[in-house]
Amino acid sequence: MTKKEELILDIQNLLNSYRDIHKTVINPQLLEFMDEESLKNIIHSLLDQKESLATPDIEWLEKFKKYNT
To answer: 56 lies in which domain range?
Structure first.
């Protein structure tokens, strides 16, 4: 497997890690024209999105910490 194929698979896996989203299958030929740096940027963007979505959940959960004592 080439590095580009691995990156495309990583993108697909990240997309499939979202809750309540239908399974995503990426045809590697659709992203073949992109260079490795562009694919890595997509991955970073997806990771940033996941982090920003998780932050409100963490803040919300922190409110309930007082009940653990």
So the answer is: 3-68
Interhelix angle 36-62/3-16, nearest 10 degrees: 30
**Closest alpha carbon to 31 in 14, 7, 58, 54:** 7
Question: What's CA 37's distance to the chain center, in Å?
Answer: 16
Cα(66)–Cα(43) distance, integer angstroms: 36
- Do 24 and 16 touch, CB atoms closer than 8 A? yes
Q: Which two tokens stand for residue 32?
A: 């073949």
CA dihedral sign of residues 28, 32, 34, 37: positive
pLDDT tens sequence across 25-53:
888 788 888 999 999 999 999 888 887 77
Q: Which residue from 48, 53, 40 is spatially nearest to 4, judged by alpha carbons?
A: 40
Work out how many domains the chain is built from and give that number.
1
